[in-house]
Amino acid sequence: MKVDTSGVLANGAGQTDNLMIFAIFCLVGLGLFLWLSFSSKSKSGNNFKGDDRTEPIGKAKKPFKPQKSQQPAKLEPILKPEILGKPATPKVVDPAPEEQVSQPSKPKYIGYTPINLFEQTEPLNFPYVIMPKPGCVIKFPQKGRSGRKGYKEEHFKAYLRKYFKESFELFDDRFILVKDRTNPYEPDFTLIDEKEGTNIFLDIEIDEPYEGINNIERRKPTHYRFSDINRNNAFKSRGWIVIRFAEIQVHQNPDGCCRFVADVIANIHSSFAVPEDLLTAKRIMPVPQWTKEEAEEMSRERYRERYLDITSFGVVADNLQIVANESEQGIEVEEIVIDETPVIIPAAAEETVDSTNSILQTAIRNKHFVSFIYNGTRTIVKPISFNNEALNCYCYIKNCERHFSVVNITNPIIKRRPFTLEATGPNLGLDRIVSVVNTAIQYHKFIRMRYTRAAWTSRTFDNETGEVIVDITEAEESTRTINNVQLALEILDEEQLRQYNLDENYITAYCNKREEQRTFRFDRISEIAILDL
User: Fold this and answer.
1) What is the pLDDT of residues 221-252, one digit of tens each?
2) Which end of the chain is more exposed for a tag (fewer CB within 10 A), N or C?
3) End-to-end CA distance of the chain
4) Any alpha helices (H) in 187-253, and if so which ranges?
5) How far is CA 83 from CA 79, 92, 94, 218, in A?
6) Cα dist. 293→128, 156, 296 in Å?
């Protein structure tokens, strides 16, 4: 017997369809409820401003793509609002163990010969350079920073990286510990080259005349005359070269500052080539180092804010203090280091001014040299004898004995030696002579040289007698001091170059011996020195 089940199946199918429809409606309703709840919480719990965004947990973030711009990016530090009132107590920071920099197992020493064409004595002009002594031991830095950064540091860092990343390691988070001193010294920038045992360690500083805070009553003068002597000497005694720029130089001509750094390196590192992009960089103009009183006046006049074209500084970073232990290698190095005697700056006056008479007497007693300005012209001499009215001395400008009226001598400065550089001997070489001369040209130095003038014969015709008169001039070797030095090809016109058959081997300069502009050949220079004026 066959049973017709179509009605039963139809009823079952209908009930199944109803259940499925009900389930779908439930799911849709539940989804709608959850969506409304999540949307409500998002609106009440998150207030977005600008480009602030949050990402769902577990969902990968999309990579950020910077917008293209026609203008180069301007790197400036993030400034926090300044908190006025009593300065906060510094937070103590312990460098994390994983951040420690590896130290050599044995002390290292500089592998170059310090030749400082840029050496100065007080009063200084920015930029100035401090060089270690030959064979000096090196104090390796540790990693860490107190958090305090100058206003222009991030901006200048981009330039240093651009020009020196191929030759040097560059850091802005290093410090060194010094015996008998609680707080470490922190370079603004550290450049290191250990390749082939050269071991060049550079501390590059940006010096501002006063602190970068807004409260004029609270901010203090900085980097004024004599204030950095002990710090500079600490780096010098530990194998570091110190180069200091005024902030205004870095702000106005960062490429020129990098060119100056490159020139310093090139003078001690024969295989270092000045980056090609720097060869045409504009030279930086010297800036006299300010006194404490001048820095205080600059602060009142908002000097930095005006040349930086800003209205305020803010606080660049939290006031932190690094606490670190000396490494075993660091302890060993400190035992080797011979520090110079600390300079104590009087509280009332940073500059002790002796009378001209006292300075001249001291120089004669200690067999030192003296530079001074006489009737508007700077010179350097070795004093021989002296009374209250006249100074008898050997002058390195005229290269002879001279007499000076003491009343006309101004700004006398005692020097231990008359030259910042001397190059002589059979191995001097033409390349070295050219290098020294080119540096003197670039930085307007006075050159003292041993020069051989070639012999020549001149012939003239006497119209009255019909005789030919022969005039023979013998070769002459003499010591001469020249200034306003220029390459002949760059200063003389084509007619002069042809007339005297001059080429790239000639310079033109004012000769203080002849008291006129003369030309000189590189290959006739047997000794050369740069005067410390």
Assistant:
1) 999 999 999 999 999 999 999 999 999 999 99
2) N
3) 132
4) 229-236, 247-252
5) 12, 19, 25, 12
6) 21, 28, 5
Write out 251-295 in H/E/C secondary structure.
HHCHHHHHHHHHHHHHHHCCCCCCCHHHCCCCCCCCEECCCHHHH
**Rounded distance between C-alpha atoms, residue 246 and residue 43, angstroms:** 52
The C-alpha torsion from 377 through 416 and 295 to 207, rounded to 10°, is 110
Q: What tens digit of pLDDT does each residue of 152-194 get?
A: 999 999 999 999 999 999 999 999 999 988 889 999 999 999 9
Q: How far apart are CA 354 and CA 372, in angstroms?
A: 14
If you ran DSSP here, which 8-state letter would residue 88 be given?
A: P
Within 13 Å and on the Cβ side, how many CA atoms surround 168? 27
Q: Is 232 helix (H, G, I), strand (E, B) or coil?
A: helix
pLDDT in the model for residue 387 = 86
* pLDDT above 60: residue 82: no
| Residue carrying structure tokens 């031991």 | 137
**Predicted TM-score of the model (pTM):** 0.66
- All structural domains of the chain, each given as residue ranges with its CATH number in brackets, are 91-336 (no CATH), 356-417 (2.30.30.100), 420-531 (no CATH)
Place of tokens 């009930």: 15
Q: Looking at this protein, which amino acid is placed at residue 36? A: L
Percent of the chain with pLDDT strictly greater than 90:
48
Angstrom distances, CA of residue 425 to CA of 154, 420, 480, 525: 45, 17, 17, 11
Tokens of 305: 């804010």
**pLDDT at 55 exceeding the cut of 50:** no
**E strands in 120-264:** 125-126, 128-130, 142-143, 169-171, 174-175, 189-193, 200-207, 240-246
Angle value at C-alpha 178, between 226 and 173, nearest 5 degrees: 90
What the block records as the tokens of 441 is 């040209």
Q: 518 by DSSP, 3-state: which?
A: strand
Contacts of 104 (CB under 8 A, 6+ apart): 140, 329
Measured from the Cβ of residue 260, the count of other Cβ atoms closer than 10 Å reads 23
What is the number of residues in the chain?
533
